[in-house]
Amino acid sequence: MGAGPAGLTVGGILRAASVDCVVLETESRQFIETRPRAGVIEEWAVRELGRRGLSERLPERAEAHSACEFRFDGERYRFPYAELTGSRHYVYPQPLLVTDLVREYADVRGGEIRFGVRDVMLHDLDSDRPAVSYRCPRTGERRLLRCDFVAGCDGARGVTRDAIPAHARRIARQDDGIGWLALLAEVPPSTDCVLFGVHPRGFAGQMPRGPELTRFYLQCPPGDDPGNWPHDRVWTELRERLGAAGAPPLTEGRLVEKRVLDMHHYVVEPLAHGRLFLAGDAGHLVAPIAAKGMNLALHDAFLLGDALAACVTKGDGSGLDGYSAACLRRVWDYQEFSQWLSDIYHGVASGDPFRAGTTLARLRRLFTSPTAAAAFAEQYLGTATAY
Q1: Which end of the chain, N or C, is less surrounded by CB atoms within 10 Å?
Q2: Mind listing the pLDDT tens digit for each residue in 187-204?
């Protein structure tokens, strides 16, 4: 269920093991290949994609990043995480990754994707032959697929999570009470790395998405109307919040996307019920504070794809038995780091002088304590949690 990074990665692994599978997707192929989403992939995930033959074009098209930059108190502080860990981030927009994964799964490995499905329902998850039914977009007929397993990779708004009975799951939730105005601008990045602006007016961020496209974020009230942010106001706030001594001016240009994201998180436990296994945002959502969402989805997909292939081809069910626990260890690690980083990003703008003071103390420690810097770098790059 779902043709995002998680579902397509699971499908690609299964097809490589000659396991038959069908991917169901509510949108069209064109839509999923052009939908703007995440853009940062951790090095361990790039390595695992390559090991499975799922990243043929990524090495030559992705931008390798070795540092990020914090701006606070009117100064610039460059954080060279590659020097501390030997690892890097890769900027590779999710539409490019999805395009690669669709091509590999469907066009190269012969996997089947049914696009535009509607009214999806899950059945008999506790049996040996669960099923998924849906309405065909061409004929309007209801169709039923019997299978051995269902991989729920259909995101935060999908149906698979709710197919688990309420008595059989626990959903832990956290609402930060903070909004981010997510912006996509047709401009080149103004620096060679990700920028984090920690400012009394609110957080601001710049994330490169390619040579001529840049993602910006501005802290705003939760539930704010993007219409409250006209072109001039956006660029005025970005200049103010990302301003620092000696910093080059921001490159300004046309905004092609404006939407407000409320910073909230959830984790479903367990990530399995009967023959259904959740992966990615269907099972856990982490706000884009630390760029962890797509990396968690890929981590789930590697574990689930390998476990399903081993069960079907070798009769080894140990991977499926331990799937939920193995995924949740990284999920909770990333959730904790995102909460810590949220405190850093938003503390100065909290209106609480004590919280603002402790926030600045934490930030300065990153640049004065090698131990604090190394711990932050490991968590930021995902190297603190072994695959």
Answers
A1: C
A2: 998 888 899 999 999 999
